[in-house]
């Protein structure tokens, strides 16, 4: 089913700095393969867990890249969302802050912010586009679910039921994929909040949510560790993870205790502490001790990028000799550094930072751009798109004499000094130890005590519920049948589109001489007559298909054949209705007083088109399943309906004046970039990009826009060896904008052509 390999025996560094290599070209393990099958061909909730370094994030990326479902990725915190390339749960669903009680009662009068079902929906401000998006999502992935509290998951459940108008279905009928390691750091609950919540939940972990009681997720644990290769170390980590460490384990680790650990800080070791205060104190002290001139580097922030998403400091103070770590992987493909790689600054200029590693390899640190994204529903194609609404540009570095255990999650260190004397939560010791690639790089600043943290009984029970490959395979067939039965029933239910059309027809309630819209009543009635029969025929077919699923042994091939014939019957009817509605709307372009009516027509046309898309998708899906293949988004986008729609949209856009042309016209009127940006409600950098096109064509003289000295300074840095605008910008600094650099490059092209 899955071509190529997914997991491989690459070195740890290859795994770390190029995880995307594993997404498309490698073979899935048996467990990962069955899990992917479950996600793609059932609607069962999944909890994907695994020890540190087992590839949970890589699996997430694989599903996003290979599933046919409409997916949204979210996480409990801003940084977790940025790392998962998703959004925060709070921004997606407008979740309230504080605690949530899943009962319709007045919020208790306590010293804590409490929301209940009584007031959950009172201040919601969801616009139509956001509601449409939520309704179209098929799979919600929550990464770092170990940080998600049970009460907030219940809040998500009720919010989705409300927004999707499916109040009797958990999560509004949405499939959930939870990813995380519950044996690492637990969710944070304030004492005054837990005083209230403890009346409703056995613990704060997400699996205690009421929404999961009757429909618990399949518990799947990835078990191959890629971060460590020393089996003895792996075994010790596994026992710490499950709070089953032995006296022998503790004794083996305590052999790495060094009383004089302070002297090792200059040898590339990083301190892992349990509290922010300790880490900040170490970093501040060590930076102050360096006898070198400090240099401050300010981030470039564009659009919407709130402070809680900052991956590093927006005002970073560094000195030559400072110990730093990279917080991103090398995107050049050369693998010079990875997330957590430690080195020392050996060159520090306003536009040039060099870091040297222990092996004396020096690298120039590139600028990195983090993007804040928002999911939107493309109403024309019914696809979920990602829109970048803000960015954060900064050097991907942090001071690295010390970091907290909490902030070290996801990082990998070759050498670390662990200070665990004040470990306060189950999982802190495990997380700290599991950051290391081997025991060789471990130093303890204090010995690990023999005492341990008790796991709750519910945690123990949940951990025991993990499913084996065999169990998953045995249940997959019946769960797949249930999913297909529901999918067939929903897809061939045409009551919704017919109802929408009939409701529209009932809105013709005025006299013809008093309403321009009323003139089109007979046209609408004729359209209803044409499509009305599909309602009863669709219901009849759905029953036949469900009977095949329930009774036939080789049901997939029979179902594929029947669905293909049904799709061939219904699709022309839906396409004709869609085309008639579009043509009707086109004929009304020059008419007045029909704005609302045309909007209604477009909504109905979209409903018919979406239904045709759904038919096409179920046809392709069942054929793929029958042929033991996977259906991807690319397969759907290659289908006839998608291609036709996109050709129509492209033609539609051609009829409009290009946005760059509008900016050019305003420039010719003598307006500055700032004035054009203000008039068009765009950022200046966008206007600069527009005008670059006309600089390259020779229609704009760049000296009319950029100061002559500035332009010449940029031009001197453009050589055949220059990699691109990023390298040039890094040398120039903040006094020069990206647009100015791009404009200089465009101008240089005209000179080269001459």
The proportion of strand residues reads 5-15%
**CATH class annotation of the largest domain:** Alpha Beta
Tell me the structural class.
alpha/beta
Largest sheet: 6 strands, parallel
Strand element count: 24
How would you describe what is shown here?
It is a single chain. By secondary structure, the chain is of the alpha/beta class. The protein folds into 4 domains: 5-226, 3-Layer(aba) Sandwich (Rossmann fold), CATH 3.40.50; 245-453, no CATH class; 473-647; 659-753, Orthogonal Bundle (Arc Repressor Mutant, subunit A), CATH 1.10.10. It contains 28 helices and 24 strands. The protein has a 6-stranded parallel β-sheet. A 5-stranded antiparallel β-sheet has the order 18-17-16-15-21, with no helix packed on it. The longest helix has 32 residues, at 555-586. The two termini are 54 Å apart.
Primary descriptors:
single chain; about 750 residues; alpha/beta; Rossmann fold; 4 domains; five-stranded antiparallel sheet; 28 helices; 24 strands
């Amino acid at each position: 089913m899955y071509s190529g390999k997914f997991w491989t025996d690459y070195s740890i560094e290859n795994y770390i700095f190029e995880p995307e290599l594993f997404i498309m070209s490698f073979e899935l393990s048996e467990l990962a393969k069955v899990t992917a099958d479950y996600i793609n061909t059932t609607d069962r909730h999944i909890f994907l867990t695994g020890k540190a370094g087992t590839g949970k994030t890589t699996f997430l990326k694989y599903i996003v890249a290979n599933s046919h479902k409409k997916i949204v990725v979210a996480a409990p915190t801003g940084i977790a969302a940025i790392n998962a390339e998703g959004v925060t749960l709070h921004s997606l669903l407008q979740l309230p802050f504080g605690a949530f009680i899943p009962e319709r009662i007045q919020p208790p009068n306590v010293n804590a912010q409490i929301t209940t079902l009584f007031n959950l929906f009172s201040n919601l401000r969801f616009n139509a586009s956001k509601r449409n998006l939520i309704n179209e999502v098929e799979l919600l992935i929550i990464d770092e679910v170990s940080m998600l509290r049970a009460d907030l998951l219940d809040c998500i459940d009720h919010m989705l039921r409300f927004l999707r108008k499916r109040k009797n279905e958990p999560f509004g009928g949405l499939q959930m994929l939870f990813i995380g390691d519950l044996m690492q750091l637990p969710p944070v609950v304030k004492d005054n909040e837990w005083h209230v919540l403890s009346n409703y939940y056995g613990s704060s972990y997400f699996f205690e949510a009421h929404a999961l009681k009757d429909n618990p997720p399949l518990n799947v644990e990835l078990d191959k560790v890629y971060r460590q290769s020393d089996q003895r170390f792996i075994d010790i980590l596994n026992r710490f993870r499950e709070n089953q460490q032995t006296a022998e384990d503790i004794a083996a680790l305590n052999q790495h205790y060094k009383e004089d650990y302070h002297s090792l800080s200059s040898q590339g070791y990083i301190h892992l502490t349990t509290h922010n205060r300790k880490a900040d104190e170490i970093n501040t002290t060590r930076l102050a001790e360096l006898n070198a001139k400090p240099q401050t580097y300010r981030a470039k922030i564009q659009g919407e990028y709130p402070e809680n998403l900052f991956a590093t400091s927006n005002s970073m103070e560094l000195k030559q000799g400072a110990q730093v770590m990279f917080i991103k992987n090398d995107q050049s493909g050369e693998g010079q550094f990875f997330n957590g790689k430690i080195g020392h600054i050996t060159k520090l200029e306003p536009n040039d930072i060099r870091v040297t590693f222990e092996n004396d390899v020096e690298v120039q640190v590139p600028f990195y751009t983090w993007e804040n994204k928002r999911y939107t529903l493309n109403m024309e194609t019914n696809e979920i798109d990602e829109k970048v609404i803000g960015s954060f540009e900064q050097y991907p570095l942090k001071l690295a004499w010390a970091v907290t255990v909490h902030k070290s999650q996801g990082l990998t260190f070759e050498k670390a000094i662990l200070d665990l004397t004040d470990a306060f939560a189950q999982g802190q010791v495990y997380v700290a130890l599991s950051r290391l690639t081997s025991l060789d790089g471990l130093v303890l600043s204090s010995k690990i005590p023999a005492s341990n943290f008790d796991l709750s009984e519910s945690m123990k029970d949940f951990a025991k519920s993990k499913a084996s490959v065999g169990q998953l395979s045995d249940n997959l067939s019946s769960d797949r049948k249930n999913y297909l039965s529901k999918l067939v029933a929903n897809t061939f239910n045409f009551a919704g589109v017919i109802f929408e059309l009939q409701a529209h027809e009932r809105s013709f309630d005025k006299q013809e001489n008093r309403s321009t819209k009323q003139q089109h009543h007979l046209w609408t009635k004729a359209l209803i007559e044409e499509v009305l029969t599909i309602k009863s025929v669709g219901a009849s077919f759905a029953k036949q298909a469900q009977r095949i699923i329930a009774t036939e042994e080789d049901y997939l091939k029979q179902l594929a054949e029947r669905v293909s014939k049904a799709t061939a019957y219904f699709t022309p009817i839906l396409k004709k209705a869609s085309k008639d509605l579009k043509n009707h709307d086109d004929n009304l372009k020059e008419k007045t007083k029909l704005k609302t009516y045309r909007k209604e027509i477009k909504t109905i046309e979209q409903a018919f088109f979406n239904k045709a898309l759904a038919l096409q998708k179920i046809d392709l899906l069942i054929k793929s399943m029958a042929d033991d293949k996977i259906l991807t988004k690319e397969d759907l986008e290659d289908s006839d309906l998608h291609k036709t729609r996109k050709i129509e949209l492209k033609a539609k856009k051609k009829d409009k004046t290009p946005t760059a042309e509008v900016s050019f016209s305003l420039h010719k009127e003598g307006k500055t970039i700032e004035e054009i940006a203000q008039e068009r409600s765009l950022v200046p950098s966008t206007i600069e990009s527009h005008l670059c096109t006309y600089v390259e064509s020779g229609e704009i003289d760049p000296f009319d826009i950029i100061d002559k000295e500035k332009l010449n300074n940029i031009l001197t840095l453009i050589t055949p060896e220059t990699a691109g605008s990023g390298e040039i910008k890094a040398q120039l600094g903040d006094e020069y904008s990206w647009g100015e650099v791009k404009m200089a490059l465009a101008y240089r092209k005209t000179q080269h052509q001459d």
